[in-house]
Every structure is written in C-alpha cells, then in structure tokens.
Amino acid sequence: MKKLALLLSIPLCVAASAAQAAFPEKDINWIVPYSPGGGFDAWSRQIGLHMQKHLPKGVNVVVRNITGAGGRTGSIQLYRAKPDGYTVGLLDVAGLVPYQKAVGADKAGYDIEKYVWIGRVANEPWVLLTPSKSPLKTLADLKARKDLSWGIEGPGSTKWLFAIIEARELGLPMRFVSGYGGTGEMIPASLRGDYEVWTNAGPAHIPYVKNGELRAILQFGATRMSAFPDVPTAKDLGHDVIAEILRLLAAPPGTPADVAKTLEAAFLKAMNEPDFKAWVVKSQQEANPGGQKEAAAAAANFSRLVERHMKDIAEVLRKQ
C-alpha cells in the first residue's frame, strides 16, 4: 500500500510543479496610481515594455492608470487584487506612508508593510531650489533667515510633506505659499519670485539649473546625483537625513514567493536592457535598480523617517 501511495503521489507532484512553472500564462496588469504623462506612468510603460522580452512569448505587461485620492485609489486596488502575480503596481511610497500613519491601516485601506515588494525602480533625491537671482545661495544663508517662504502645491501634497521634513531636519523657518497645480506651474512661479525656496524630485528642474535660471542649494540623496556633482548633499553639510522619491514595484499581500521571484527576475533584466538605459539617460532620469530586498529596505527606511516627523506633520496640519 505504501508503494502504491507513493506512485499515486508522483503525478500530483509533477502536476503541481508544472502549474508553478507555467507562471505567467496570461497578461500581467501593471497599475499606475496617477494619470498618463507623469513620471510614474513613464517609468511604468518603459519598464513594462522591456519586461515583456523576459516573459514567455505572448505575455504582455498592460499598464492601467487608476487615479484618485492622491494615488491611494490605485494602490488600494493593488492591495485588494488577487495575489496570483497577474497584478503589480508602481507605488508612490512617499504618498502612502504618511496617510497610513495618520489614520491607521484599516481606514487607509492598505498596510504598507504587507505589500510584496518586487523591485526598486528609482529613489530620486529631493533638491532644495531657489531662483538664481535670489541672494540665498547656501544653507548658511537660509539658516540666517527668521522667515522663509516655501512653495508647495497644497497641504497634503508630496512637496508639502518633504518641505516639512527638510525644514525640520535643517532647522529652517517655514511659511507655505500654495495653490499650484504641480511642478509645471511651480517652476515659472519660482522664477517670478512667488516664494523663496521650494523642493523637487525628478528631472523637471534639471534643465533650469543647468541653464542658470534656478540654483540647487543642496540635495538629499545618499550620494550626489550625476546631474549635480558639485551640489552638496545634506549629509555633506552635517545633517544625517536622506529624502527621496521612492518608485517601488509591488504585488498584493500573499503573492507566492516563487511568483514574486519570477517577476523580480524579469524586472531586473528589463532595467538592464541597453534600450532602457538609453531612455533613462535621454530623459535625464536617475535609475537605481534593486530587487525585493532593496525595495523592502527602502520602504522601511522611509517609514522610519516619516515616523520621526509625525508630530511635525500633525502640527502643521492643525495650523492649515
């Protein structure tokens, strides 16, 4: 009987192994929690295009823009999706973590610690900016001020969050000037002198620094950006703070480890494609590819940074 049972179990094991090896058998949906045309959308479409080369023939990566609630709507849909590997999403961790910490995971509709991380796309440092015509040229100049106006889109925006973190970490005064729709409006507003300083991450401000219209006072990455090799980091100036936009690829909680590994492998190969690297350079982006461990570590580090400033964030919210 034992021999018969063993023989009967062999086909079942083979069938189970075949089922696992078959992933993926159909298209993979990639959720972008923001509208088409933005940074998260551009990264997603480029990576998805190259990931397809490293998936079985006929399997496509289909990008779906699911917007609303400052990126939370798409992130919640990912969180609630079936954990079978056929739904992934590029998450804006900087927007998700503070909200969850403020209202709790149940009300937020997600728990940042329970997503299954697939990989790190980029962690682009925030850069503190002033118009070049401004007399504020160094961190010492900013610290000498008793009043300092900061440009933001509005309360609750990512720029608002990082302005609070940066001001508190550097010991700077802070008064908000708000009402802007995004970076596209804030660059000309800065050049007009609507406010004295503002902070931004991503490539939009780089050409304006290069052509001399904006000044980069300092950057908040672990190392200096290739675009700004002469601009000091906060750490260079004695402030132990790293503030970066995190673009992390995630799958729903409960996604099997072997499925996550398959996705991670295709993702990392896509990030290493020559055509993808050429796009990164051409679009003046800063890629920083990493796997599951790097993505999880980045999310955890940012959570600790936000936790350190929750009292400051709550205080500013009360005054709005």
> How many structural units, i.e. domains?
2
**Gross CATH architecture of the largest domain:** 3-Layer(aba) Sandwich
Q: Please state the structural category.
A: alpha/beta
- Main sheet properties: 5 strands, mixed
Rg calc: 22 Å
- The H-level CATH homologous superfamily of the largest domain, spelled out, is Bordetella uptake gene, domain 1
Strand order of the largest sheet: 2-1-3-10-4
What is the number of strand segments?
Answer: 10
Q: Quick one: CATH class of the largest domain?
A: Alpha Beta
SSE arrangement, N to C: HEHEHEHHEEHEHEHEHEEHHHH
User: Average pLDDT, to the nearest integer?
Assistant: 89
Gap between N and C termini, in Å?
Answer: 75 Å
> What portion of residues belong to β-strands?
15-25%
Name the helicity range.
Answer: 40-55%
Provide a count of the helices. 13
CATH topology of the largest domain: D-Maltodextrin-Binding Protein, domain 2
Low-confidence spans: pLDDT under 50, at least 5 residues?
Answer: 4-8, 14-19
Shape: globular
Walkthrough of the structure:
The protein folds into two domains: 27-124 and 245-310, D-Maltodextrin-Binding Protein, domain 2 (3-Layer(aba) Sandwich), CATH 3.40.190.150; 127-242, Periplasmic binding protein-like II (D-Maltodextrin-Binding Protein, domain 2, 3-Layer(aba) Sandwich). A five-stranded mixed beta sheet has the order 2-1-3-10-4, sandwiched between helices. The protein has a five-stranded mixed beta sheet with strand order 7-6-8-5-9. It starts with a helix and ends with a helix. It has 13 helices and ten strands. It is α/β, with parallel strands linked by helices. The protein has helices at 2-21, 39-51, 72-80, 93-103, 105-108, 139-143, 158-170, 183-192, 206-210, 257-271, 274-282, 292-308, 310-319, and strands at 28-32, 61-65, 87-92, 116-125, 127-131, 149-151, 175-177, 197-200, 214-219, 244-251. Mean pLDDT is 89; it is low at 4-8 and 14-19. Helices cover 44% and strands 17% of the residues.
